[in-house]
Amino acid sequence: MADLVGAVDQGTTSTRFMLFDHGGNEVGRHQLEHEQILPQAGWVEHGPVEIWERTRSVIQTTMIKLGLAASDLAALGITNQRETTVVWNRKTGRPYYNAIVWQDTRTDRIASALEREGKADVIRQKSGLPPATYFSGGKIQWILENVPGVRADAEAGEALFGNTDSWVMWNLTGGVRGGVHVTDVTNASRTMLMNLETLDWDDELLGFFDIPRAMLPQIRPSSDPNGYGEVAAPAGFAGIPLTGILGDQQAAMFGQVCFAPGEAKNTYGTGNFMLLNTGTDLVRSKNGLLSTVCYQVGTDKPVYALEGSIAVTGSAVQWLRDQLGIISGASEIEALAASVPDNGGVYFVPAFSGLFAPYWRSDARGAIVGLSRFNTNAHLARATLEAICYQSRDVFEAMEADSGVHLEVLKVDGGVTVNNLCMQLQADVLGVPVSRPVVAETTALGAAYAAGLGVGFWKDTAELRANWNESRRWTPQWSDQQRAIGYAGWKKAVKRTLDWVDVE
Q: Of 56, 96, 355, 431, which shows the fewest CB atoms inside 10 Å?
């Protein structure tokens, strides 16, 4: 009897496969990193073939290690780094170009031109997104304009686009031998090409980017009882039904069981992503947030969310490790930062690819300010953790202004939440308690939940809510004055990052 559900979590730095039982408990996992390709300043790419090979490997390794067969899995879900853009050939299965990652800023001229030409308000109204380098539409346009042969193939229906969910799904279901070309409403809502009200590709938006509709995947619900297809033999373990797709941040909402309007979570990964469930009401932000699809189950109405996306949080810790050599592993930052009582007057704004929510300033670049001879690498380490927390406060305040909802507690998940000092600082900076669940990898869990709902493994969201348990809670320790002074210093530091890059 199939008593497990699997989830592929295709992230920015790695791909993992996780298995969960009916209680939402982790049964097994395997994870592999992939290369971060940085051809020039502001460009970030991944190898799509490497991502697919890693996906196949983590599935096979986990299943073999646990001695499982395809019949042991009721369903399989996919969650993925959103906005990262892959264009490949339908007949050969080969990508035309590397995946252009969500952090990549090469499309800043495309985004600026949309603003200049008066198209920005239409894009915001229809897609819920501002013209920005973050989203897929400009990345597709760049590939069409800069990679020889792609446009002709796209117009002929031979070049296919997808975020990494579509790329993995196409390969899992057979690739050139009948692979399914689909995405879900959450991923489609991150392209600047989908109309949030119709849940379909919008011809006017496609025209803005000069993108042929023929290259786009079919948009499906996030949890689909009809299924998208089955795992094919070349991927190993043929026959497992694929019934769930969610972009990674929406998957974390699902895993955190934020199913009611007003419930929110913050995911700490490569970047930070705070989402607030607004129910079936599409709330349009006046404070720099995104309106996005939270999820859709079967034929139910879509549930929407407000989102605050932050480009660089966990990756700032990687920067200390890889570029500066201050730490040799991410786990070392907590002890180093805890060796000093405060930031020593140092603020670090890691605007490596501009500032995302709520500022949306592609002209910003990273800055470390307030340095004196007194400061050490420990102060920079602490300022890095504080930067994660202050950026989240920027979004937190915008979210409360847009929604009128005062959050009483913030649910958190993702890799950085193992850093207890960072989570304490987050409670201090926000002034509200921070709560971490027993299963911190809620992104993969959410994809598993969506897939399991699709096949009746779980009967409804109430059953999923019963699985959620708190692991730890942090309560604020700073005084109101300390919190106000710290945040004022952060806002001054942010101002120092602006107008650094000249954007045409």
A: 431
